[in-house]
Every structure is written in structure tokens, then in C-alpha cells.
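HOLO CASE FILE
Compound: TAP
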Amino acid sequence: MADHAVPPTPLDYAPAPESRAIVDLQPSYGLFIDGAFTEGADGRTFKTVNPATEEVLAEVTEATDADVDAAVAAARRAFRGWSRMPGRERAKYLYRIARILAERSRELAVLESLDNGKPIKESRDVDLPLVSQWFFYYAGWADKLSYAGLGADPRPLGVAAQVIPWNFPLLMLSWKIAPALAAGNTVVLKPAETTPLTALLFAEICQQADLPPGVVNIVTGAGATGQALVGHPDVNKVAFTGSTDVGRQIARTVAGTDKRLTLELGGKAANIVFEDAAMDQAVEGIVSGIFFNQGHVCCAGSRLLVQENVYEEVMDRLKRRMTTLRVGDPLDKNTDIGAINSREQLDRITALASTGDDEGAERWSPPCELPTSGFWYAPTVFTGVTQAHRIAREEIFGPVLSVLTFRTPDEAVAKANNTPYGLSAGVWTEKGSRILAIADRLRAGVVWANTFNKFDPASPFGGYKESGYGREGGRQGLASYLTSSVLQEGE
Ligand code: TAP
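Model generated. C-alpha cells follow.
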């Protein structure tokens, strides 16, 4: 294998043009309940830090059971008016929110990068455009619920409890809140402990849009707050995105109640490159598949399956491309790979990746100098990986790629499906017939062909097997917040 050693990437980046001055950071943030910011019942707070510097960004209120109670009660009170409002009127609020999100997108992108560690070029060019698109898209559905596939007069479910992870804080919020509101539900959302800030700025945007009080409530806190929320007896629907372990706990909590549940959980996607693939595009797809958002992506292409006869060529090109990746300051628009979201996640990545070394896989990273403070992990590729290795079976949720090979399409499908997960997959080939044949046999909710990590609000997204159930996006995502019952469920 050719060695592509190049001089270390210099760390003296130009000052970030997307200056953080654009963000009006408050020293402390309260909960958003019934249309107003409020302190928590017992004054407990936690710190949210910038993972690129370890600087404390703000103190955030930790919601107690009593706060969750108040938020659910506010959502319940708001439900009657919101669910009976004509769809076209609800749509006006959603359009207004979508427009404000677009107008304030630079500020939101900088805040997202500060709190999450993701590169500004991703928060600015990927996350934020999708966030406002999600609200625009579902605003269009609010007066067309009879086309949701649930009969002529579908009804909202009531109060939705929504719990989201830290990897796409605002985008996951939009996937949850936009369809719920369009369908006439009210919501209580808990963002992840490490990334609460953009959800709180979103709350301010709800005020700016004059959204009726109680329609959206944001409770910040850790797992215990999430647990209180999903277990609350006056919640009608639970929507969760996060790890499979927590998803299981939530399914147990909800079991035996009449709450509806959707789960978007982990993944270990295969990105399959056939010998006839357009190699330049395939290599770009491999890189974005695993290094986009530091690999903190549930649908990341974390297992690369390469046809044996092009293995050398693919690895050669991939390594050359990886040497051009810039790791560093998330607010520098030239940065490709930002900070790992938390020390805890960095420890998890480090521990799981080191099992690759222990089990005999071969590790390679391009030369790159990592900043001395903050949480960082160099882009890494493991070759010589077998299906038995933990790095081929478990979700690493970081910038670590495991490479396996295959000889025949049947072997590619068998290896791709050899995982408890089933969220996504990628296929790279020139043959349209092969794309269709392979996609049909892959047990994955989303299959990308000659592209990767493409999202659209009109396209349903969700998993098979241990990647969860239910779909978000499109008509299916709307339907999961509706019932065909003639009774108004949430009253
Ligand atoms: P989790 O630890 O599962 O956390 C997700 C959310 O649940 C957070 O808000 C968390 O709060 C909260 N939570 C933790 N314990 C809870 C409990 N017992 N009851 C209710 N809520 C609880 O996952 P994570 O570390 O944030 O995210 C990484 C995982 O999410 C990966 O496995 C990834 O694949 C998956 N993910 C999946 C998708 C889709 S679309 N399928 C998208 C993104 C991420 P704290 O933050 O305070 O712990």
C-alpha cells in the first residue's frame, strides 16, 4: 500500500469569519414552559461547554419532575386551541417559524457549532438549510391532513414527549417538532444535556413567531429529565432519537400504556463499492459517509465494503483524500472535521477503536496535529477488519472507518446485512439494474445509490431491526402524529 505521508496540517487558521460575536450568549438559561422562560423548581443547573475549547458557554436549568409536570400541563392546556385551529392557521405559524429560522440561520449555525463542535460549513450549509426546509415542508401539510393516509378526518394524538440526541441538535428538533405541530399536537421536547442551546434559541423564535403559549415547551436536563418526560402519564406520544440502549428502556417504560412510540436508534451502515463505481465520486461518498459531523451520525457509512479487485485502488485514493482533511476550529470555514462532542464520547470512541488494534486490524490516520485543549479524534481507517471484530459490529459514532472486502454481490449483501442494525446503506456502481437488485435485498430503511447522507423533508427516514421503528419525514412522518380515530384522543 502506498504511503501518503504529508507534512502536518498547520493549525494557524485564519480567524473565523463567522465570528461568535453574532451570538448573544446569556450566562444562564431557564426552561421554556407555557410560552415563557422560567427558572426550575429547585434552582439546579448544569454547565454546557464548547467541546473545541472546554470553555463553559452557559449554565442551563436542570428540569425536575415538577418542571416536567408543569411543561406537560402547559402543553395539555394548549392542545385544545391548537388542535382545533384550522390547519391553514396553524400553517401560518409554521411558515413564520420557518422564515425566522432562515433569517437567523447564521446566528443559529454559530451557536450550534459552539455547543456541538461541528464545523461551521456543515452547520451553515447542511443543518440550518434543512432545519428551515423541514418547517416549510410540514407547514404545507397542516391544511392537508386528510391526505396523510389515515382517512378523511385524521386527528392529532395530543401531547408529544420528544427526546433528542446531541449530534444534530436543531435538525433533530425540527424533525420532531415540525410534523407534530402541523398535525395539531403540542410538544414538550428535551434536548441532549451537552447541546441545549439551539433548542433554547428556538424557544425564543417561537416567542418571536407569536406561537400560542404551551404549544412548544423545552425542558433541559440529563437522562432523568428525559425519563420523567417519557414516563409522564399525561403524554400521548413519545418520539425518541438516540442510542439503542436508551430506546429499549423507553420501550419498556411505554409498554402497557396507550402511548404511541417511535424510535430512531443507532446504525452500522455498509457503504458498498463495486468494481465499476465512478471512483472519484465513490471516494467522496466514503469520506462524507464517515467523516461528516465527526462520524456522529446514526446513518454513517461506518463499514466500507469494497470489491476485492478494486481494493488497492480505493484505499490508495481514500488515504490520499484523507490527507487533505482539516481537523480543528469548528468556527473556521475551512475546517472539515470539528471537535468530538464530549469527553465521554471521546472516551467511548477511543476505547472501541482500540479494540480494533487489540483484535489485529491495521489502523491508519493521516498526519494531523490535534489542538491541545478540547476533544479531538483524528480521522481513522482500519483495514484487515473481519466481521467478528467489534469495530465491524458496534456503533463507534466517531470518525473511524472499518474496511472489509467482498468478491461477489451475494457476499456484499450478506456482509452488509450481517448486523443487528438496519438504518441505512450505500451502493456505488454504474449499473442501474444492480442498484435496484442490491437495494431490494438490503435490510436498511434508507439506501443511497451513488451518493450518501442525502436528506429531504419529503423522504421518510427510519430503521429496521435494532435501528428502531416508525418513520420521520414525508407523509409517513406526519402520520405518526395522527390517529384515524373519530375521538379527539388527547382531550
Ligand atoms: P442517548 O444516550 O440515547 O441520548 C439520547 C437522548 O435521550 C438524550 O437527550 C439523553 O439525555 C436522553 N436520555 C438518556 N437516558 C434517558 C432515559 N433513560 N430516558 C429518557 N431519555 C434519556 O444517545 P446519545 O448519546 O445522545 O446519541 C448517540 C446515539 O443516538 C447513537 O447511538 C446514534 O446512533 C443515535 N442516533 C440515532 C439517530 C437516528 S435518526 N436513528 C439520530 C441521531 C443519533 P442526555 O443527553 O442528558 O443523556
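CASE NOTES: The mean pLDDT is 94. The first strand starts at residue 28 and ends at 29.
CLOSED: yes
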